[in-house]
Write a structure and sequence with these properties.
Helix content of chain A: over 70%
Helix content of chain B: 25-40%
Low-confidence stretches of chain A: 1-6
Oligomer: heterodimer
Number of helices of chain A: 12
Largest sheet of chain A: none
Number of helices of chain B: 18
Strand content of chain B: 15-25%
Mean pLDDT of chain B: 91
Shape of chain B: globular
Radius of gyration of chain A: 25 Å
Structural class of chain B: alpha+beta
Order of helices and strands of chain A: HHHHHHHHHHHH
Number of strands of chain B: 19
Mean pLDDT of chain A: 86
Structural class of chain A: mainly alpha
Chain lengths: 328, 542
Amino acid sequence: MRCFFLSGTILGDIFLSSIWDMLNYIIKRIGIAIPTLLILIVVTFYLMHSAPGGPFTSEKPLPAQVLANIEAKYGLDQPIWRQMTTYLWGILTEFDFGPSYKYHSRTVNEIIGQGFPITLKYGFWSFIVAIGVGIPLGAIAAIRKNTWIDYFAVGISIGAQVLPNFVMAPLLIIVFTLWLGWLPGGGWHGGDWQYLVMPVIALSTSYMASIARITRSSMLEVLNANYIRTARAKGLPTKTIFFRHVFKPSLLPVISYLGPAFVGLITGSVLIDIFFSTGGMGYFFVNAAFNRDYAVMMGITILVGSLTILFSLIVDLLYAWIDPKIRY
Amino acid sequence: MNYLPKSLAMGFVLATFAASSVFAAGTHPVTGEALADDQTFTYSLLDEFTTADPQMVEDVSGSYFVRDLFEGLMNQDADGNLIPGVATGYTTNEAKDVYTFTLRDNARWSDGNQVTAHDFVYAWRRLADPATASPYSWFADIMALENVGAVLSGESPPEALGIRALDNLTLEVRLTASLPYFAAMTTHASTFPSPQWTVKTFGDDWTKPGKIVGNGAYVLTEHIPNETATRERNSLYWNNDATIIDKVVTLVINDENTDFTRWQAGETDKGAVPSGQYPRLKAEYPDEAISFPRLCTYYYTFNLSPSGQEALQDVRVRQALSYALDRSVVTDKVLQGGQIQAFTFTPGATAGFEVPAVAFGQMTQDERNAKAKELMAEAGYGPDNPLSVEVMYNTSEGHKKIAIAVQQMWKETLGVEATLANQEWKTFLKTRGGQNFDIARGGWCGDYNEASTFLDLLTTPSGYNDGKFSNAEVDELMSSARTMSDATDNYTRVEEILANEMPVIPVYHYTGVFMLRNNLKGWPFNNVEQNVYSRDLYKVAD
């Protein structure tokens, strides 16, 4: 009994210290994230303002007085450092990312509030499809290496990889809208499934292909490892070997790919927005850069930056969970 | 026994149904055409419109919304002629600097309030008020409203502006200059009335569905930015009985190929023609692929400022480069959209403007090429001493194709070494506006249907004169044209001077191209400004 209690306390201590280490690690990472984000904001702000032209530069230049009135209204007549501090203060105190200079009656909060959920939805489903198809495809190819199944799976993933989404998207519209008449050619309608199918296919294929290739090569490496040979020699059934010893370690490189891929997917694809008129954030982001719509550009940069930092932290935590050799 | 009565009853039901649907569809009151049951007009936009606020709107697509949701003093008919809007008419003094508009008494806002002269006073003051910071407040300036300069600069309050309501239905406008065409300017979206009570209540949000109050034929019922917007019939509009289209749906489609595919799939009534595909589509859809002249000119401008290249200060070099540019190659081989070759800066479609027979426009291209070689040799350039210039354009496949064609023509005919440079749009504008170029691409669309909207650009004080061309006679002719009731002679003379001095190379006059469903009628093709009013459109039964 005594012995049992002792070992229980030791286990508890190890568990607690592990939690404590993890918390410590998370706090440390957040501590690094804040200055990182600040640097991102400052650099973007200066880069943006150093690009020639401004939000109100147009083919027909505005008379000086009119331009002065507009710049005064938006505070663009202030020195850059003041514009930046005012902007940051607005975010910190009121979570106000400012007005759009291009779309006069809309604020950046509204633009992100409208575009981000759309992007998030098609991005999330693309992520699920990319994983759901990519991982099994890569795994099957690895297990049945050098058989027709392998060649077939590799063929599909290479095909999907080389077909860029700006080719895939119009092709899908021609086939499913024009020829078959099954799906609407674009729009969002609150994200009804009919409007979701083509954006998800177009967006997920190249990610799916990458995931399949990474899964296949990493699984092949694990399958050739000594401990797998030992497991086979011990006479373990193939299923047990695969699910207990192969699957988890083969996912490590996949997971390191998934973090940035997920951020890429949920923060918008300008091509998807352009071809399918989804109204997502990708188009606003690129358009804001062309229009010099400073506040929109900053707002989306901050959002994408924060999400990138958040998901790289999540990936690191997942990594440690999968590979106990990694410590915080 | 029961069979006959049953079939008779069925026949009766069917006949009633058929009769009622014919009744529901109706016929056009003027043309007598049978109208379609569904009067929904769906069109695509390449880019989201900026706003539906009359005093803030600055883009063509936004102005179309404003024309549907609001109504100004005067409207245009399908040919671009001035017809009454909220105003039933106007009078003016002999000097044409005081205009008095009489408003109809049955014009209503969509919330039931009467449209009065005070609503126009409020809107015009709002346009000029520095606090509004409208990007189109300069329109108040070119309308020459009394005290507009002082109001724009904040020296005088908006109340000082030369507009007042004599009573609810009489509006007086005082100008600082004699403007014979002033009434035509009131068809511009920025002069449309605004509902003060709504603007005050909702601030910048007042144009959103559910909040917006308008006096036009339609009300905005749905708007999902970058996706769709819907405007539906306003039952309180004074001329609602004459409106046929019930619902107008806008779909934002950012890619012109997708846009065309969706038109083909029947999702829209009006869609885009992908660039370079007009001839093919015209052959495939002869009645539905549309091309018509627009009030726009594509040109190259020479940098004539002190920072400009020395060779280009020589008028012979400028003429030679212009002559050697074979416009027919650009219009017929490169663009293929029915564009019109340009030898004058003002398009021939402009009202009251007759294209003058400028000499080089009368020659054949071979004659022009021969003359160009002669001029170039006179200026001292030839195979041993070739001219090198840089042609700058804003990044676009279309501009690139034209620039490559021009580069080849100059090379072959004159031995000129032209290098091409492109810049992203706003960077390009900055470069051109700062005179950091030899030759730069330009495109100009008229703000109103009169030659001065083009020719003013080439006067010395113009803020748009990026080539810094300056000619005292042009300035004088354009200045005196302002107060003339017919300035055609002045405009002709200016074009002749431009053909001699060649500060710009006019290349072609734009055409509008789009796909338009066969059953949609009433499109104002003859309105070169393309001021479309959805209430004038209708769909006929197939």
